[in-house]
Amino acid sequence: MSAKPLYVTEPFLPPLEEVIPMLEQIWNSKFLTNGGPMHQQLERALCEHLGVPYISLFSNGTLALVTALQALRITGEVITTPYSFVATAHSLLWNGIKPVFVDVDPVHLNLDPKKIEAAITPQTTAIMPVHCYGNPCDVDEIQRIADRYNLKVIYDAAHAFGIQCHCGSVLNHGDMSILSFHATKVFNTFEGGAIVCQDAKTKQRIDHLKNFGFVDEVTVVAPGINGKMSELNAAIGLLQLKHVDEIHRLRGAVDARYREALRDVPGIECLTPGNATRHNHSYFPILVKPEYGRTRDGLYHYLKEFGINARRYFYPLISSFPMYRALPSSNPSNLPVAHRAAEQVLCLPIFPNLTESDQQRVIDAIRSGRG
């Protein structure tokens, strides 16, 4: 019998005996959406767990990104990274904003602060960095640049649930941080997302924008959208939150086993962990160097022969897609580190229920795959 296929992630599902009573509560209340009890409870619980002052739940992270830009009234140009999921840049286009791509640093693959100032023009209004793989950006230097040029900072923190940096939650940096609660994330609501902000007035504007712009039954103050999270999704989030510390622990154990087992494989380099004081181990990226004897794509296809579906996060670069590649900032000569990373990074399976024997399958395949 062939081994079961492995994927980069496998969503954590709360025990069914915990799910059924929550569903019964929703059924009995007949409150399915529009900021019901589960929604309100999850917002409060997440603020406490994450150490943030205000959070607004969304039906997905992309709508949260789009709405954050609207809430801050961002226009013109926004400096961002080409090394991310396409939703980062798509949210700019949805708002009629021009993305300006800047290269990433070679260690953590986050937006390189040393490259930001050269990309600032009179049309620049904001910076949108990504905490790639949950490794914190250089938040202090990015903020210094933003303050110097009077720019807003919106963090795409899709990978950064629960991450702590030198001064507490990394989500408290910048003007806003945007989370994704997609099924592939460390903490998920099946589909969902959120905006973290720092004051009640901003949260109120966000909440108006995610509900068509309604203030009350007869008053609309903005051209909002329908971005509300349902009660079912919020209930799943409340159940997930009960287990999230154990999820972090189990993912950390998988991370540690990979690092120990792969440290002596020529041409395989585990990406250096960031300077977080608390990690969430959201991904496990390796760099496939020439010394391995097989290209990254060669290893990617080789692993598939063993039912191991690794992912090339992020390939191609956002700047290489048709809607972006004509931008001057998309020129490959402007983004050498990002292009090299896109050719070398391979993310391996990491999730709480990954057994040691299945993880050993991955390790053995990598060892046997050397050219």
From TrEMBL:
MF GO annotations: transaminase activity
Domain of life: Bacteria
InterPro entries per record: DegT/StrS_aminotransferase, PyrdxlP-dep_Trfase, PyrdxlP-dep_Trfase_major
Coiled-coil regions listed in the entry: none
UniProt keywords, alphabetically: Aminotransferase, Pyridoxal phosphate, Transferase
Keyword Transport: no
Entry's family note: Belongs to the DegT/DnrJ/EryC1 family.
The protein, known as: DegT/DnrJ/EryC1/StrS family aminotransferase
The organism of origin for this protein: Pelomonas baiyunensis
